[in-house]
Amino acid sequence: MTSRIPNKIADLPNSSPRFIGQEVERVEDRQLVSGKTEFIDNVSLPGMLHCAILRSPNAHAKITSIDTSAAEKMPGVIAIITGEDAKRWTQPMQTVPEGWGTLCLATDRVRFVGEPVVAVAATSRYIAEDALDEIIVDYDPLPPVADTQKAADAPPIYDEHESNVVFQRKFTWGEVDAAFTDADKVLTDKFRWHRLGANPLECNGVITEWDIIDGTVTTRGSFQSQVNMGLLSAGALGVPSNRMRVISQPHGGSFGGKGGPRGTIITALLSRKAGGRPVKWIEDRMEYLAGGAGQSWDRFYDVSLALKTDGTITGLRVVLLDDLGASAEGFGAVSAAKPLAAFTGPYAIPVAEYDLTLVATNKLPQSPYRGMGPPPHNWALEQMVDLAAVELGLDPAEIRRKNYIPKNAFPYTIASGNEYDSGDYEAALDAIVEMADYKALRREQEEAREQGRHLGIGLVNTIEPGVFDWNAYAIVGSQQTGVPEGATVGIDIMGKIVAKVGFSLEGQGQYTVISQVLADYFKVEMSDVRVVPQDSLSAPPHFGPGGSRLGVAITGAVLGAADRLREKLIRVGANLLQSPPEALELSDGMIRIPGVAEAQIPVAQVAATMLARSDLLPEGMDPNPEATYVWTAAGRTPADDQGRAKSYLTAANACHLVLVEVDTATGMVEILKYFIVDDCGTRLNPATCEGMTQGGVAQGVGAALLEEYVYDDDAQLLTSTFIDYLIPTIYEVPMTTKKALVTPSPYTPLGAKGMGEGAIHTTPAAVMCAINDALRPLGVKAHEVPASPRRLWTLLHDQSVG
Amino acid sequence: MPTPRQISVTVNGTVYESTVEPRLTLADFLRHELALPGTHVGCEHGVCGACTVLWNGRAVRSCIMLAVQTDGTEITTVEGLSKDGELNAIQQAFVEEHGLQCGFCTPGFLMTITEMLDRNPDPSDEEIYDYLGGQICRCTGYQSILAAVRNAIEKKKAAS
Ligand code: FES
Ligand code: FES
User: What separation in Å is there between the alpha carbon of A469 and the centre of ligand 2?
Assistant: First the structure.
């Protein structure tokens, strides 16, 4: 059964929609500002125990003995598990590629500082942490692999692998060699992006119960994706998927950093050992920083552009070395594969090559972070475009304009295989140039230079691949195409609407979007709609937030379900109005015969008839005023041997222009002005879109200037608190001037595009372009992020370095 | 283990008599002993400000204070801001200006802003930055929070 999902707001069955596309207040917020939202650490279950985890202080060592006897005798300590329990009861965690994972607790070897070794369940967290002090673990240190660039040749950290190379492959799209041979100019440069990561304000947390009689494991927690958590945990625990029940609690942000199953597996084992009592583990910030899902992108880039003298880019080569850390458990190679979805950015670069090497070292395994792989990729590419502008004597705005995919070329297939749905990049450029008064900024820069001040302008336009699809990851082993998202929509006997979904609150305001869509669809108030999350076993197929997909996907799901419900209501309405169903429509909350004023019945009344008057229903009618629809992106294709596929459904466009000042005496960077033109198609809730953009700018500023996990030569983490790992505050984040362009997607529900990640794709590149624009007259260039004061100062004052 | 102490503390207008271990943090006391979980813990080392509560009217970080320190004093938490389900001006301003996304940082911001506006109902931008500079929000990028502060100032002015 197909479903009619409108591509435009105007096609909703409502002559005057009031909510969708408007800056409505969020339905989530009254609870949140009252402190009433049920985050995982607010949940307490009868008989619940508390877990604390003893972690490795060594980056690489053999475990020679573990003595838990003293801890076991402590009053209040109920269960203790070690790697032996993990070995007996669990499988290694899933990795990408396969075979690069460990058990949830180290067995005979530890491979990173912070790796869990022993876990305790006690009657309070305080007692559990006391017990850790009584546990004695003896280690025999091994030389750590700490240097990413030497990791491939270092002794392997896994006996079962011949080297530390986790993945290596070169993808070639088109006649790349010819493009470089025929080029008027070839430019090459190297870049270094240091580790940083998600750091949602709430760390991870879980409560798990293992019902040993019927074999069901129930885990609730701050999970980004219920279904993913379920599959990863069920696989590791050897529990059938239909006995792995996952409940995602509202959570305090994720940004990709809440996916790993370790916490669930550890608490499940403790629960099993404690006779099935629920066990809670709340990760603290130091655990998160050293051993959580919070580190991403540890990259070395070597990038080449082939150019014509007029500035046309004819080829792109990217060589990437990424340090995955001690395993490939947090989606491993997926992050390096994502740039395929927008490899050449907004540019019509006809051929490209991607030479990837991913290595294992004795650092924390990487996890996803907002944007997944493109933020560093875009940064490296945009530095090259600026370099090309300088070398060819072109303005940075003009070289970009020259290379944009023209607006009449959509849908457009890029060299790496993905298709962009729609866009108008030149319009975005024009808009930002005008809004920022680019010419005046250049004059301001000139005048400042005359006064000895160093201002720089960065102008970057990026593509945000939205609505992720697994086929994008075929090159690193994904067998899937499609990511389903389902919703069940029902109307109760009082005419109130309930939408059941498979994800919880995370911050993006999706429950608001659902309420907006359904309120307009059935012409009711938003307060007449209630969104109710379901656990992983009762929700329709779902994935949840991730890969800039949920706004689009859930809109499709609820509209699909609403359409199916409409069909049911029309069948019943036809009986009540004694007309053929084809003569009826749903419009403005009524089932009616168009043009016949008296022939209309409110939807609520039809729904009530279904539940309360079976005598009035057509024969054989399903009397449930409820319908389910599972949305997945249409037209996705399996990847070819070079990984090329129609993968991400939408291509949003973010154009940023930033003015910075570099203080050469201190190396400090101040952002003076920041402009954004953003095109994510139809804006379902413009205030939410602005918030997503501004939040991404903040994280992008963190990436460009502040955030860095520093490991020393022994792979010891030096940044283990928020005093050392610097999250941007209001002082560092610019208040931005924003403008929206709307190029609706021709393919999606209501024309919306995925939009949660555009700013983090763009801000690091834009800020770094601006810094280098400021530094250029001084003869130095920043090749590393973050461009911390120390790095910039060293560049400026110690010419022997850098 | 040191012997538990008897404390008497007024939280959101209610007097609680409790026996607590000296090492129990104020955040844990409020959240887990008094069932007031609106005070959130983001770092547990005094940096993020999520755990901010008012202690005799002053904004403090409850993760690096001990419950025993509050004996004989008054605490206000986010649960004490609304009355009978009615949001107060600052809470309402956050809703109107989309001053939150995940909302995990929000209680801390609300308490800090409460202290600021109690001290000075018409703070300068510099003062606002000074107060908010100690609160981390990972989601919003602060622009909508700043708008919420300005909205709250206007609301309070209009009401007085
Ligand atoms: S939790 Fe207290 S300051 Fe972060
Ligand atoms: S709203 Fe999520 S941390 Fe501030």
Answer: 27
Q: Note whether A32 and A48 are same-domain residues.
A: no
Structure tokens at A225: 């994706």
Strands A497-501 and A485-491: antiparallel
Rounded to whole angstroms, the Cα distance separating A567 from A565 reads 5
Find, in chain A, the residue whose alpha carbon is nearest to that of B144: A691
Which ligand is nearest the CA of B31, by number? 1
Task: Tell whether A292 is covered by a domain.
Answer: no
* CB interface of A with B, residues 64-123, below 8 Å: none
Asked if A33 reaches chain B (Cβ–Cβ under 8 Å), the answer is yes
A181 close to B (CB below 8 A): no
Residue-wise pLDDT tens digits, A368-421 = 999 999 999 999 999 999 999 999 999 999 999 999 999 999 999 999 999 999
Q: How does the average pLDDT of chain A come out, rounded?
A: 97
- CA pair distance B142, A728, nearest whole angstrom: 10
Q: Is the pLDDT of residue A45 over 80?
A: yes
Is there a single domain that holds both residue A230 and residue A327?
no
Chain A contact set for B88 (CB, 8 A): none
Query: At residue B145, does pLDDT exceed 90?
Result: yes
For chain B, positions 71-110, list CB contacts with chain A under 8 A: 77-79, 81-82, 87, 91, 94-96, 98, 100-107, 110
Pairing of strands A590-592, A585-587: antiparallel
The predicted pLDDT at position A60 comes to 98
Q: Is the pLDDT of residue A1 over 50?
A: no
Chain B residue whose CA is closest to A198: B138
Q: Which residues of A touch B142 (CB under 8 A)?
A: 694, 698, 729-730, 733, 735
A361: part of which helix (H) or strand (E)?
none
Structural domain that includes position A546:
9-37+484-631
Same domain, A380 and A447: yes
Give the CA diameter of chain B. 54
B48 to chain A: which residues are within 8 Å by CB? 201, 285, 722, 727
ipTM: 0.98
Q: Does A126 touch chain B (CB under 8 A)?
A: yes
**Hey, is the C-beta of B4 within 8 angstroms of any chain A C-beta?**
no
CB contact under 8 A, A729 and B133: yes
All residues of chain B having their beta carbon less than 8 Å from the beta carbon of residue A690 are 98, 143-144
What domains are there in chain B, each with its CATH number? 5-80 (3.10.20.30), 89-159 (1.10.150.120)
- In A, minimum Cα distance to B139 occurs at A695
**Residue A541: CATH number of its domain:** 3.30.365.10
- pLDDT score of B160: 85
* Cβ atoms within 10 Å, residue A240: 11
On whether the CB atoms of residues B63 and B29 are closer than 8 A, the answer is: no
Could you tell me if A51 and A24 lie in one domain? no
- Cβ separation B102–A252 shorter than 8 A: yes
Chain-chain contact of A506 with B102 (C-beta, under 8 angstroms): yes
pLDDT in tens, A436-471: 999 999 999 999 999 999 999 999 999 999 999 999
pLDDT at A402: 98
In the Cβ-directed half-sphere of A224, how many Cα atoms lie within 13 Å?
A: 27
Which among A25, A202, A692 has the least Cβ separation from residue B104?
A202
Per-residue pLDDT tens over the stretch A655-680: 999 999 999 999 999 999 999 999 99
Report pLDDT for A3: 64
- What pLDDT was estimated at residue A260? 87
Residue of chain A nearest B101, judged by CA positions: A507
Per-residue burial over A49-83, b = 16 or more CB atoms within 10 Å of its CB, e = otherwise: bbbbbbbbebbbbebeebebeebeebebbbbbbbb
Confidence of residue A182 (pLDDT cuts 50, 70, 90): very high
Residue A613 has a CB neighbour count (10 Å cut-off) of 12
pLDDT of residue A802: 43
